[in-house]
Specification:
By secondary structure, the chain is an alpha+beta fold. About 35% of the residues lie in helices and about 20% in strands. The strands form 2 sheets. A 5-stranded antiparallel β-sheet has the order 1-6-7-8-9. A 4-stranded antiparallel β-sheet has the order 2-3-4-5, with no helix packed on it.
Length: about 250
């Protein structure tokens, strides 16, 4: 009986993205805001991520994506200048995003919420604090590191794969989504199983199958069909792998 590895986490395959309009640089003579640090930011829990480019006279390239329940999402593209991003909606009122420095990253808000809601699915949001993540834990860096772990696993370099997955789970914990954590725990457990580390395998899977976690998942899955399908697969894989780690394949 073979261990189960869920398909790689590809949020863009599960999201209903709103159509994003033409983005313009905000003009005006307001006082210059402090230039934010270029790079990737992530919300606690990993439901939204923001990428800022290097500063120039035209501002900074700005990209924000978020995902909410049942595949709903937000997507904004533009240039940040003077703490603001103006997104053309095709209507008289533009979407104005605001970006301010915070103790741990950036605070994102809006001056025109109704106009900005047009760039989001019904159950998705975008406002709040975006954290400067630990090294290797931005959205882009996380995807690269997971791919390297997967390649090591496929090359049967199980120790190297386990080290990469364990490192991500450890240092990126606060900015990982539930799906990311559960998928990587399954991946790590399978690598540990191949290495004969059965006790470590069981310990890796244990946080995914506590009564509290499963009860919360059941409540969420009641109103979110897409999460129900995804999380059911993750839970089934975790239970299957736990039986293998425990020496009970059936």
């Amino acid at each position: 009986m073979n261990p189960r590895r869920p398909a790689s986490d590809k949020p863009w395959q599960r999201l209903v993205l709103a159509v994003v309009g033409c983005v313009l640089v905000m003009a005006g003579g307001t006082a210059a805001a402090e230039t934010p640090r270029a790079g990737g930011y992530v919300t606690a829990g990993g439901s939204a991520w923001l990428e800022l480019g290097e500063a120039s006279a035209q501002g900074q390239d700005f990209r924000l994506d978020s995902q909410g329940p049942n595949g709903h999402a937000c997507a904004f593209r533009g240039r940040l200048k003077g703490g603001r991003v103006r997104v053309d909606t095709g209507e008289p009122e533009a979407c104005i995003l605001t970006v301010q420095a915070s103790a741990q990253g950036l605070l994102v808000g809006t001056e025109t919420l109704p106009a900005c809601r047009g760039f989001c699915g019904m159950r998705a949001g975008f406002g709040g604090e975006y954290l400067w993540p630990a090294a290797g834990c931005s959205h882009a860096a996380l995807a690269r590191e997971r791919l390297l772990a997967l390649r090591a696993y496929e090359a049967r370099e199980y120790a190297a794969a386990a080290t990469r997955w364990q490192g991500l789970l450890s240092r990126c914990d606060s900015t990982l989504s539930f799906e990311q954590k559960m998928a990587m725990r399954n991946d790590l457990a399978v690598a540990q199983l191949h290495l004969g580390r059965h006790a470590e395998c069981r310990a890796t899977l244990a946080p995914s199958l506590t009564d509290e976690v499963l009860a919360e998942l059941r409540r969420t899955m009641e109103y979110s069909p897409m999460e129900r399908e995804l999380w059911s697969r993750l839970i089934d894989a975790a239970r299957h792998n736990l039986r293998l780690c425990s020496g009970t394949p059936r």
